[in-house]
Amino acid sequence: MMNKLKSGQKEKVRQFMQFTNSNERAAITCLTNCNWNVEMACDHFFQNANYFMSMEKTADTHKIDALFRVYANHASDDVGPGRIGPNGMLQFLNDLRVDPTSRMALILAWKLKAETQCEFSEDEFRDGLMTMKVDSIEKLQAKLPSLNEEVAKDIKSFRDLYAYAFNFGRSCSQRTLPIEVALAYWDMLFDERYVLYPHFKSFLDEKKQKGISKDQWNLVLDFMTTVKPDLSNYDSEGAWPVLLDEYVEYAKANPIRNHQ
């Protein structure tokens, strides 16, 4: 349906889907009925939301498979047949207008349950898009704001993403997450969410920490979510890892106010 539209109409479909969190069929129907006026089409959609949201609730597997083939088996990738590799992944993210180093890129990998960084298998790609009920770049692009909002507002989703990041970020042979990878993911995930994080990051830098274990990774999140910025409720007798005990001692000697 989208391939028959002019470029300006495709952009209006994308805008409509992003504004209304609806699907391509509803977007084209509303825009056509409203002479391609996005504002009028959005008003029309919300006045008849139940009807339009019932349209095309499932994704088309044939479209998903065709989309996968656009990015799979890139000539510069050496990941085996039937996979999207680093170069195909970069093209995929560019088409979505997603920064490869952003949290959104990590959220996409999580939603597709990718097991390997910078790669998607055909099953991961198909199952992930089917679960999200999208079968085109435009639909997936329109879905992105709601995925980001889900992680921002739903603590269970955020914890699931956080747990996923540890396994995703390390190779099969590694028991710990290299510190540079851990910091990159913490920067993505915490992103001004926790007051103590910048100070904790300085501590890790001064300590010359080499890696983060799974236990440390999990408990850092618990620490950030439960301990007050002044550390007054930190229980040194609790089941915290030594790393966090050491951070608290560091924070007492280097208060956050001095750090700032």
Automatic annotation (TrEMBL):
Residues 59-252 form the DCUN1 domain. One of its GO terms (molecular function) is cullin family protein binding. InterPro entries: DCN-prot (IPR014764), DCN1-like_PONY (IPR042460), PONY_dom (IPR005176), UBA-like_sf (IPR009060). It comes from the Eukaryota. The keyword Ligase does not apply. PROSITE patterns: DCUN1 (PS51229). GO terms for biological process: positive regulation of protein neddylation; protein neddylation. The keyword rRNA processing does not apply. This is Defective in cullin neddylation protein.
